[in-house]
Amino acid sequence: MMSAPLLPLQDYQRYGRQMILDGIGLPGQLKLKQASVVVVGAGGLGCPAIQYLGAAGIGRIGIVDHDRVELSNLQRQILHSEETIGMYKAESASLALKRINAQIQVDVMTVALVPENALDTLRPYDIILDCTDNIPTRYLLSDAAVSLGKPLVSGAAQKFEGQLSVFNLGPTGPCYRCLYPTPPPKETVGSCAELGILGVVTGIIGNMQALETIKIVLDLNDPNPSLLLFSALGSPQFRSIKLRSKKATCTACSNPSESLANVTSTDYVQFCGGAAPDWIERGLANGKTGHRATPEELKEAIVTGTPRILDVRPATEFGICQLPNSQNVPLKDLLASPGNYVSQSDTYIVCRLGNDSQIAAEKIRELGRGGVVKDVVGGLRAWSRDINLEFPLY
């Protein structure tokens, strides 16, 4: 009499193409089924990672994300759709994953990962994936991974570039703090909304995160730590940098009990220099009397005269949309030669959100000559909202 199959019969068909690979086989597929992975962030990196982990047969997948799906996400966050706009990303990703593989267990957590819940949230899983886009959470995840003794598969992507590394893997694997003991100044860290992102880049890095996770589960991974760098426009596109083993002086992984203390006592936002600037709110600030104009005031100036309008966005953004008769002067060019843009005519300066325009206007005013110089509160976003609903938002 034949012994009962170790997998449901349909799984032999579902996973057959990967089970016939040397190094996987039936034992490997069983390992995948018994594995548990938690993905923190169901955005550009998390969506492809979740998709391929589920398709490969990882038995339990946790999804942690408290954000909701927006239209601007759909360019890269491939598990979401027009039908799930407004839904929690974790729930939207879970629905998509269940359509791919209804047999796996999906844990949906629509909460923000914070020091108070990080250890309890991550503890049930074998491997942690960092698919986030903010520095405080990266440090929190690294400290939590060290204190829990779990590998952390970390990815990042911006513009045309991405990177991937596995932290805290094995007894000598470095943690995130080993590479970055101190965070960068918060003003130097931009988001995808500010800097832009090619969606395919997040797909490549997210898929690589899934691949590294699967390799760890199957014991097919390279134990030597490395940092993989990807550039969509580079030649070659991939470069791998060998990393040193964990630092003996690291405040986290050199003493895991200290890392536990970090998780429970550190204010990670303050450690990283405070909350990230809210550029939309800053752009809406009133500023000094007479220095800023509302969109309505700019409209009135256009209707009653011919004001000089300088648009200080980069040329690429100016090419997307612009106000009629406006002149494109990228901020870096204006700051390099502000005297070139002094005029006896009243000058209105615009940008996307109303931040760079303040810098430009102040620089021209410092010269102390010419006509009135004002920048527009809220920038072109406010113009679209308050004056012309047909003006494109991006």
Automatic annotation (TrEMBL):
Subcellular location(s) of the protein: Cytoplasm, Cytosol
UniProt protein name: Rhodanese domain-containing protein
Keyword annotations of the record: ATP-binding, Cytoplasm, Metal-binding, Multifunctional enzyme, Nucleotide-binding, Nucleotidyltransferase, Transferase, tRNA processing, Ubl conjugation pathway, Zinc
Family matches, as PROSITE patterns: RHODANESE_3
Binding site for ATP: G44, D65, S72, N73, L74, Q75, R76, K89, D133, N134
Cofactor binding note from Swiss-Prot or TrEMBL: Binds 1 zinc ion per subunit.
The organism of origin for this protein: Agrocybe chaxingu
Xref: Gene3D superfamilies: NAD(P)-binding Rossmann-like Domain (3.40.50.720), Rhodanese-like domain (3.40.250.10)
GO molecular function: adenylyltransferase activity; ATP binding; metal ion binding; thiosulfate-cyanide sulfurtransferase activity; URM1 activating enzyme activity
Residues annotated as signal peptide: none
Pfam families per UniProt: Rhodanese, ThiF
Binding site for Zn(2+): C175, C178, C250, C253
